[in-house]
Structures are given as structure tokens and as C-alpha cells.
Amino acid sequence: MITLFGQTYAWNDPEVLILGAVALVLLALLLLILRSVSRSATAAEPLMREIGWLSSRIQQLGDGQERLAGGLHHVSEAQAISQTAMLQVMESRLTEVQRQMTEALHGTSTRTARSLGELQTRLETIDKAQANIEKLSGNVLSLQDILSNKQTRGAFGEIQLHDIVQKALPKDAYTMQATLSNGRRADCLIHLPNPPGPIVIDAKFPLEAYEAIRRADTPRGVQEAAQQMRTAVRAHIRAIAEKYIVEGETADGALMFLPSEAVYAELHANFPELVREGFGVKVWIVSPTTCMATLNTMRAVLKDARMREQAGAIRKELALLYGDVERLGVRVESLDRHFGQAAKDIEDIKVSSEKAGKRARRLDNFDFEEIAPDESARVIGPQAAE
After folding, report:
1. Domain residue spans of the chain
2. Which of these, 275, 311, 368, 380, is most buried using a 10 Å CB contact count?
3. Which CATH architecture has domain 149-314?
4. Which of 26-35, 229-238, 311-320 has the lowest mean pLDDT?
5. What is the pTM of this model?
């Protein structure tokens, strides 16, 4: 770096190179001058003029250098101002970009948080549904366990029968687990009047035979399963007819309750001979739906029987009601007479009231100030009184 006229320049700047060239020229001229000193005085005068011209040129070059330095200073200042303005613009743009990025990141984080919340809610719903499914599968397994055991299967049928009977009949119209005179215990005994008399409902569930029919996939398997179903249902029908139809104690028929609409439909669709055999020994097969309809019919019978039992009491109450109605008629006639007499008295009172009103109006029309003394004496005399 080199400093000229208060301005600092690099060695390779054009101004420095020009000044170097000028200095070399001057140095060469000085050498020429020194060599020419010994020349004649006549030759020195042109040389001096040349030196003066060179001095003026050097001065002009200095002035140009100063102007060039001023221009360079202005250029550097303008460049600094431009750089400052550019930095401000870049800072403002960077600030705006940062703000937009912050807003975008905030919106993205909000949407992400909302999505995560919705995902959490859906996962909770899925967990609840999974728990319900597991619970339902456990209940299904429990139901399968119940139906796989004959004793628990019988209890299942009895409970279902009890629910249906409880909804259809009043409490005093049936007895669950009733013991008959032959020592047999019926699942339900309906207290119907004679005829037909108390009737037994026994719950049966030939599940093994029905499942064998559903599982059979060959003609031979279907035939064997059908035979198993016939054997099981016939055994149930015979057992009910022998145990729960007691002459003189129960009705001459009984009901076999199947706690499955599917088994009931299978019997009527593919084993009508079993239904007819039940009719033959007066054992009627019912499902939950047909059992409810039958019990509603029994309820009407019970209601009619109780109405007949109360017929005597009803006739007695009707006789008392008839006497009460007769007495009420007599009392109404007496009250009517009283009303008639009261009406006559009211009419007489009205006549007397009208007469008194007329007399009062006549008295009100008299002008006592214009009456003469003799006339006043005449008015109040015996003749006026008459």
C-alpha cells in the first residue's frame, strides 16, 4: 500500500502505475540534463523550456490525480451507502422470511398437534371397541360353556322360561319348580281353572342333536344327525307325557318349551312327524315367541275364570247398587217436591215484592207541599184508610 496526497492506494492501482511512469520519465530527463550540462548554453535554453513544460504536465497530472482521488472517494462512499441499503433490504427480507417461516412452523405444529389429538381419540375409540369385542367374545364363550353342559343348559332354558312367564302372567297364576303328587318337579305350573286344570311347562333343549344337524356335510352324516334329533325329541316328549300329565291333578296336556327359535323352526320344517307325535300324546312344542302367545291366551282364560268366580259377588253388589239407585230416586223425588214448594214460595215472594214496589212508587209520586190542610185531614182520615 502507498499513500499519496492523503489517499491510500494499492501498488497495482492505475494511479500508482501512472505516477511511477511519470517518475521514470522525470528521472530519465534529469539524467539527460546532467549529461547535457557540459553542452553549450545555447542548447540549455530549449532544455529548460522542455523542463518547464514537463513541470506543467506533471502539475496537471497531479491535479488529475487529485480529481481522480475525489471521484474514487465519492465512488467508495456511494458503494458504502449501496452496501448499507442492500444490507438493510436483505435484513428486512430475512426478517420477513423468518416471520413467515415461524408462522408456517406454528401452523404446522398446531395442525400436527390437532392431528395427533384426533389420532389419540380414534385410538381410544378403537381400544374401547377392542375391549367391547373382547368382552363380547368372552360372553359368547361363556354362553357356549353354558350350552355345552346339560345341567347349565337346562338352567338356561328355565331362566328364559321364567322371564317369559313373569312378563305374561300375574304372580299368583303360576309356580316355578312346582312338585306334583307323583314326586316329579315341573319347571313351571300354570294354575288354570278346571277345565282344563293346571298345566305344566317343561324346558328342553336338544342342542347336541341340532348341532349335529348343522355340522353334517355328507348325506350319511345328515341322516345320522336327523335320527339323533328324532330320538332326542321323542325321548323328551315321552318323558313330559309320563311325568307331567297326572289325571285328576293336572290338565290332560303339557307344553315342551324350546328356548331356541332355530331348533323350533328346524322341527317344524324338517321333522313334522315329531310335532304330530307330540299332538298325539297332548304335548305341545312351543318356542319363546309361541310360548308368549300361548301364555297371553291363558291369561285371558284366567281372567274369565276369575270373573265367573266373582259372579255371585258381582250379582250381590248389583242388587245393592239397585237398592241404592231406588233410594236415590225417592230422595230425588222428595228433593224435587222441595224444589217445587220453594219455587212456589219464590213466586209468592215475587208477587208480594211487586205489590210493595208499586205502592212505594205511588207514594214516591205524591207532592206533600201542595196538599191543603183539609185535604190532608181527608187523606189521613178513616175514608182514606179504607
Report:
1. 149-314
2. 275
3. 3-Layer(aba) Sandwich (3.40)
4. 26-35
5. 0.43
